[in-house]
Write a structure and sequence with these properties.
Blueprint lengths: L8 H13 L6 H12 L4 E5 L4 H9 L3 E5 L11 E5 L1
Antiparallel strand pairs: 1-3, 2-3
């Protein structure tokens, strides 16, 4: 029988904070987009609007600014975006 480890809410919170802090995999494709845009002499790029808040906060800590752009809900082809600029 598998044993289940009991963890407190405080420990779970700490584990989540650590996982978010160490999550660089989610940031890699965004930094690649930024790099590609910069090579094209652009000062901005766009990413999916469903990007987690902690990733947006990491971008802010790196000095990037973001604008949230709400897509038109009446058009299923439109989606929410973040504009990242530097």
């Amino acid at each position: 029988m598998n044993e289940i480890e009991l963890i407190s809410a405080s420990d779970a919170h700490k584990m989540t904070d650590e996982a978010r802090e160490n999550d660089l995999e989610s940031l890699k494709p965004i930094l690649k987009k930024i790099s590609e845009a910069a090579k094209k002499k652009q000062y901005n790029c766009y990413i999916n609007g469903s990007t987690p808040d902690y990733i947006i906060q990491k971008l802010h800590s790196l000095g990037y600014k973001t604008n949230y752009i709400k897509g038109d809900f009446r058009d299923p082809r439109e989606q929410d975006l973040y504009e990242i600029h530097w």
